[in-house]
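To: structure subgroup
Subject: Chain for Friday's discussion

All,

I'm putting the inputs and outputs inline so they're searchable in the archive.
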Amino acid sequence: MRQNVLKIYLDDHEWNHVVEMAASVSMPLSGFARTFLVTQRPPRPKASGVTVEAVAALNRCGALLNQLARVANSSQTLSQAEIRKVTAARERLLAIAEQLTGDRT
């Protein structure tokens, strides 16, 4: 748990510059500043060609698959409805992967 605080003062130009740098790599300001200070270089985007919507969709699919895995592990079976959900999530993941592949070329 982070307990230490570093307080700095910036003028408007400096503030706007740091905010823009953090936004350019889609990071919260605190995480950007922490990474920059610790590594002594600006963070790079975690993945290129990946849209925010694609990441959100992948997160939703991953959460659904985790829920279904918990059900399967606890009951040792999946209902037909649950199998349909897994299949739909798989199809959605494949569609997203195909779109991302197209974005990178």
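Points worth raising on Friday:
The radius of gyration is 20 Å.
The mean pLDDT is 80.

D.
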